[in-house]
Amino acid sequence: MTPPEARIPLVRIEQEVVVCRRCPRLVEWRERVGQEKRRAYRDEPYWARPVPGFGDPQARLLVLGLAPAAHGGNRTGRVFTGDRSGDWLYAALHRAGFASQPASTHRHDGLRLHDAYVTAAVKCAPPQNRPLPAERDACTATFLHRELQSLPRLRVVVALGGFAWAVALRAASDRGHALPRPAPRFGHGAQARLGERLSLLGCYHPSQQNTFTGRLTAPMLDAVFAAARRALA
After folding, report:
1. 76: domain range?
2. Alpha-carbon distance 181 to 206, whole Å?
3. Which of 131, 144, 170, 196 has a CA between 20 and 30 Å from the CA of residue 2?
4. Residue 165 belongs to a domain with what CATH number?
C-alpha cells in the first residue's frame, strides 16, 4: 500500500502530462499530425499534446492502453476518444456499468466513468503507433507510476494488448508487488495475481486491426469486463 502522503492528486498529474515535452520525436510527430490533419477533420482544431488519463479518482479498475491515436486522442484530447477503438472500449465499459454513456466523441460530451480510470502507457501519439523503448520508459516512470500511486482503491488492471500487459507487469514489480514466476504471458482473457491486492487481466486491443477481422468481438470484450467485475466483488 502507498502511504497517503505519497499520493499526488490525479488532477495534478494530468496538469503535468499536458505540458510535457520530454521526448523530442513524439513532440514533433504529435504536433505535425495536428497541423497536417486528416481530411475528415481538417476544419477541427487538434489537441496535439500529451493526453492525460480520464476517469474516477476512486476507481478500483484501471484500463491501460498503449498510446493515444494520432487522429483520436491526439485530436480530441481525451484518451480513447474520437476513434473506433474508443467506440468499442467505452461501449463495453457502459455495458459493464463503468461508463455513463456508450459513446466518447470529445472532451465535453458529458461522459463520466464510475469506479474506472482509463489511461495509456505512453501519453503522446507515436509514429506508426510504436513508441521507442526509451520513450516508453520515460513516460511510465514520469506519469504511469504516479497514476498507480494515486489510485488508492485500485484492485484490477485490464491491459489492452501485449505492450500494455508488459508495462503493467513492470510497473507492478517496480511498486513492490510480487509477480508470479515464470512471468505471466499475455493473452486475451489471461489473468495474473500481482501481490495480495492487484489482479491483471489481458484483453486484445480494440483496434480496427482486431475488431474488423473478428479477432476481437463485443462478447469477448464484455467477458473481460465481466471478469473484472467478479474480481472486484
Report:
1. 4-232
2. 29
3. 131
4. 3.40.470.10
Question: What is the spatial distance between Cα 221 and Cα 204, in angstroms, rounded to a whole number?
Answer: 8
When pLDDT is averaged across residues 132-159 and rounded to a whole number, the result is 96
Helices (H), ranges, the chain: 10-17, 24-36, 73-76, 84-95, 133-139, 145-149, 162-174, 208-211, 218-232
Cβ atoms of 54 and 113 closer than 8 Å:
yes
- Grid cell digits, residue 213: 477481422
**What is the 8-class DSSP label of residue 211?**
H
Number of folded domains that form the chain: 1
Provide the grid cell at 78: 481525451
99 contacts 116 by C-beta, under 8 angstroms: yes
The phi, psi pair for 186, rounded to 5°, reads -70, 145
Judge whether 68 and 83 are in contact, CB under 8 Å.
Answer: no
Spatial CA neighbour of 165 closest among 121, 207, 209: 121
Nearest-10 crossing angle of helices 218-232, 84-95: 50
| 171 vs 117: CA distance, rounded Å | 16
For 128-153, letters b (16+ CB in 10 Å) and e give ebebeeebbebbbeebbebbbbbbee
Taking residues 181-200, report their average pLDDT. 93
